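Sample entry was shown:

___
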Amino acid sequence: RLPKMKNKNTPHSNKRKAKQASKKDDKETLLQEKALREQEEEDDFVSEDGSAAEDFDADGDEDGNDDYDVEEGSSDEEDENTEFLAKAADGLDLPSESDNSDGAGDSDSELEDYYNELGIELDDEEKDIKKQKQQKRLEAAREPSKESKAKQEILTQIMSNVEKTPNFKNVSRLIRITKAAFLKEAADDKKEQKATPESSILSGLKAAEFLKIFDFFVEKLPIIIIKMTGVKVSDFDKIDAKKGSKAGDLTIKGVYGALNSKSQLLLKTYIANYTKLLKYTLDDFDTKRKDSQSVDSTQLQKYFTQGVSVAQLCLPFKVYTKKLIGYLSKVVMLYSKVEPTTQLMGFNALLHLATYSIAITKAPEEDEEATPNVLLERCIKQMYSEFTKESRTGGGGMNILSSLRIAQNCFVEIMGLDLRASYQFGFQYIRQMCLHVRNTRHSVSQIGSQKKPKKEDGKKKQVDPLKTIYSWQ
C-alpha cells in the first residue's frame, strides 16, 4: 500500500504561512525605522559641524587658516597619555625598569641569540650596557642576602657564647650544627635529610662559614670541654709520652670519677662526632685518590691540632678509642699521599693515646689475671696492616723517601712502648711469614720438576706462586 499523502492546504499550514508573512512585515518596518533614524542623526551632525566651522572662522583669522599652537596640542596629548598610564597601569603587564626582559618576556641573552641567528651585530653602546648589566648581576650574587647575613650572625653569636660562657646546651648545639654541616652530603646520598633547626641555620651559607665552624670544633672545643667538665689534666701531665708509662700510672676513676652524667654524655657526644667526621674525611680522601684528583691534606691536618686533648677525652670509651687508633694509624702510614707535617701531628695524638692506654691497665702484681694491653696490640697490628697496603701502591721513590722514613720510625717508636707485647707480636708475624715463604717455595720446586703442559685455549694463565708472597700481609 502507498502511504497516505497529506493535503497541503490544511488549517495548520495556513496558520504557519500567516505567521511567516507577519514576521516579514515586522522586519521591513523595523529596517525602515532604523534607516530613518540614521538619516536624521547624520543631518544633525552635518548641521552642528557647519555651525562650529563658522564660529571658528569668526574667532580666528580672516582667511580661515588653522594657525593654532602646535606645542599646546602636544602637551594636551602628553597629559592624556600620563592620565591613561596612571589609571590603567595596574591592569597592564608592563616590564619594570630593573627587569632584564621586555614586554614579551624575552631576556637580553635570548634576544642576543636571536640577533646572532639573523646576523645582526650589537652596537658598541649596547655591548657596554650588556657588560654593565652582567657586572651588576655578579656583584649582586657575591653579596650575601639578608637571610644569610642573619644566619652568619647567629652562628657567630653561638660560637662566642660557647667560648665565653660555655654550658651544656650551647656546646651540644654547636656539636649538632657541625655534624649537620659536614655530614649533609653523606645523608643526601642515602636518604633525604630531615628538616632540623640546625639544618635550617646552615642552608644558604658559603664554604668559608662552614670552615669557621669546623675550625672551632676541632681547635677550640676540646679544651673548652675539658675545662667545663672538670677532667683532671694534672694526672696526664705526670706521664711523659717519650719516656713511656707503666701499667697502673693512671686510673679511670681517678681522672674521670668526678664527672656527672651530663659531663660524661657530653664527652661521649663530642668524641663520637669527632671520629665520625674523621672517617668521613678519610673516605673522601680515598675517593679522590682513586679518581686521580689532587688531594690536599690541610683539612686533615686540622683534626690533630689538639690531638692530645682529643686523646684525653676519648680514653674512657673503648669503642671510640679503637676507632680513633685505626684512623690515626692510617694517617701516619699514608706516606705517599700525606704531607710529613700531617703524619707527625697524627702520630703525636696516636703516641699519647697509646701511652695513656698502657697507663690505665692494671699492673700484673695488683691483678694476677690482668689481660695484656689490647689497645696497644691493636695499634701495632693496624699500623703494620696499613703500611703493607700503602707499600703496594706507594713504592719507595726519592720524592717520598722522607715520608717513608717517618712512617717506619713511627712504627718502631710505637713498638718500643711495650717491648714484651711487641716481641710477641713480631715473633708471631715473622713465624707466619716464614711458614708462608717455605710452603710457597716448596710448591715452586714441585712445579719446576714437572713438565710444563701445553697452553690450552680459553684458559687463564697461572699466577706465579712467588707473587703470593708479596700479596701476603
